[in-house]
Every structure is written in structure tokens, then in C-alpha cells.
Amino acid sequence: MTGSSALSDRELTAIRGDFPILGRRLESGHELVYLDSGATSQRPRVVMDTMRDFSSQHNASVHRGAHSLASEATDAFEEARAQIAGFVGADTAELVFTSGTTGAINLLTASLGAASGGRGQGLGRRFAILPGDRIVVTQAEHHSNLVPWQELAARTGAELVWLRVAESGRLRLDDLPSVINSRTRVLAFTHASNVTGAVTDVVEVVAAARRAGALTVLDAAQSVPHLPVDLPGLGVDFAAFSAHKMLGPNGVGALYGRSELLEALPPGFTGGSMVEIVTMREATFLPPPNRFEAGTQAVAEAIGWAAAVDYLTHLGMDRVAAHEHELTQRLLDGVTELDAVRILGPTDAKARLGTVAVDVEGVHAHDVGQYLDAQGIAVRVGHHCAQPVHRALGVQASTRASLGVYNTAAEVDQFIEALGQVRSYFGVGS
């Protein structure tokens, strides 16, 4: 990052003090070094306190009832929506609460499936996907942005094709003209890979999709917690992201959709709270975003998420990104110097997040992870719900360190030192 000042040591010490879990000493005797924020980030005290206050003082169903608690809960829920929408540059009505990124993408594919089955009126028919149409994804996708599209293609008879990943871990965007054709209806892609850390040139991808008249769907689960993200500014039609990767609670996320698209899209899930009039034969539906929020919502979690957004907003996402950029470069430089350790993805910090997956020659990723855990270092091992990108890079599994705003240079150095000891510990190599 350029033009943004990173966090000072004093600020970082104060931030770490906001996260009670970072002071834990593990059974191994080591203090916790948490390098697994790409899976789930830790939560500051204010998020837990906000949820506790709601549950103890204001808990009630939203958009139901006329009593005081119901009114308080509804107001808090909708204020949370407005705050989270604003964080990514969206209007309030453009943000649909879901159970997470996975839930958001499944909601969207279910709605497109409903349109393909003849539901929706007028403009809603534009979303129909027919036999022979094309859905484009990429080899870099998390399973949550791959399997739902596989299923939609199977249900509709559409063709599923994909952009390949280069040896560098970046998408082969030069393949866009050959992959996108006049029958392409959807292009779904990740903003930042949860394996390689590579950040996609969204503007180039969106431009290619627009030339074909295709909808764009962005998996922003890894990017929104770490970068300033303006979804309308990026030009995407839909996007999905989750609270639990950005200092918030589990069980809540969002689907962003451009307002004119959500207005025309039929609901994929139905039930209570999303209807206007119901007879024994048919129903009419509320305007978005409520049209897409059938059933009881995760109210306390949404309000806790808003507290996390407020926390990040006060830090400044440009400064969060600058801090993590410095740590990412330090991490990459250190790992690059280790013998027989391969970085999966770009080896410099340009257009890259602090998600660094490695393959240690001669040692299985799970063994690497166990050794690091014995040193108090928490990382992710396995295929990280992204098997195709691992296969494309010639491995079955990897060990992944992923940074958060609360990490320090000293923690990065601890990881590098411990990683350098793995092969000798297991008696591999000279």
C-alpha cells in the first residue's frame, strides 16, 4: 500500500488489548500466535459486549409485533444493515442478511433457479438460465463459490466453464475472451483467493462480463476484512461476504445486489417475513431486501457485526490494509529464504493479501500444522475448501498462515522461525 500510514506500535498494542483471546497461554506453555484469520478472525471485546447487551436487554423478533422490545430490536437490526451496507459503499436496500458467504451465494443461485423455472415477472425473466447457456467460474474459487454454480448448471442444463490459474497463483485473465461468449449468463469469481492470496483485477473481469451481457458475482469474503472495498464502485452486480472473517460473529453474512437487480429478482427461499399478501393459492412478496430474508434472522449476530464494522471503520481500512501489507511482505520475504518451502501464489506483496499457503517438501501439511501448534502457532492445514486450485498448483494440501489487523512483526518472525525447523524436526533432508 502507498499513501497510507501503517499502525504504530502503540496503536497495535492497544488493538491487541481489545481481543481477550490473544492473551491466552496454551497447554503447550506457549502464548497464542493466531495466524488463521482467513478461516475465522478473532473478535474484539466490543463485539461480544454489544451482542450480550442486545440479548440481555432488547431481544425480540424483528419486523413482528408492536411491543417495545420488538420495536427496539427492529430498529437496531435495520441500523446494523445500514452501517454494514455503508461500509462497502452500498445503499441499505442493497444488502440482504444471510447466514454467511455460503448462504448468500446459495440464496442467489436459488433465486436464479426460480427465475429459470419461470418464476418472476417482467424483468425477472432476464435472470432465466436455459440449456446451452454458460456459467463461468474460476479454478481459484472456494467451494462455496463453485459447488452452488455446479448445481445450478446441472439443474438448468447450462454449461459450466472456468478460468484457469497460472503457476503464479493468479487468474489467467488473458483467457477471458475465449471463456466468455454470447451465451454467458453469469461470471462468478473471487476477489481474493483464500489459498494464494492473489487479488483479482475486478475491473477487467467486470468489463469482459459486461461486453457479453453477463451478470457478475463477486466472492468478497477474503477482501472486505482486509481492504477498502466499494462494491458499487467495482461495478459488480452481486457480492457475498461474511461477518466472522472481519472481527464479527459466526452465522451472519450478506448478499449485496444492485438495487434494480434485486427489485426484479424472484426469491429463492420463501416463508414468513418476506410476503405481502398470502392466499391459499398464491403470495406476493415484499420489496428487497426483505423479499430475500425468509424466516427468523440472526439479529444479535447482525448487531454484533455492525459493532465489528464500527471498530474497523474507526481504525480506517486504508490503515488496516497498510499494516497488513507490511506484515505480508515480511512474511513472504522470510518464507522465501527457507530451503525446500514453496509459496503457493505470488511471492511479492503486490495485489496480494496476507494469506500465505506453503508446501514443505517431504512433510505433509497436517504434520507441519501439528508442529506449529506445539509452538503455540495456529494455522490452517488441508485444502482450505479449495481443492481445484491446489490441484492446479500441483499439491493436494498446504499449510496456510493468514494475517489479521492484530498480528505483529514478532509473530510473523515466530512463524518463519518455526516453519524453518519443521523439516529437521521430522528428519527430512540434510
Task: Tell me about this structure.
The protein has 430 residues and is an alpha/beta fold. The chain has 2 domains: 145 residues, Aspartate Aminotransferase, domain 1 (Alpha-Beta Complex), CATH 3.90.1150.10; 265 residues, Aspartate Aminotransferase, domain 2, CATH 3.40.640. Helix content is 38%, strand content 15%. It has 14 helices and 15 strands. It has a 7-stranded mixed beta sheet with strand order 2-8-7-6-5-3-4, sandwiched between helices. It has a 4-stranded antiparallel beta sheet with strand order 11-12-15-14, covered by helices on one side. Strands 1-13 form a two-stranded parallel ribbon. It is globular and about 75 Å long. It starts with 8 loop residues before the first helix and ends in a 5-residue tail after the last helix. The model has no long low-confidence stretch (mean pLDDT 96).
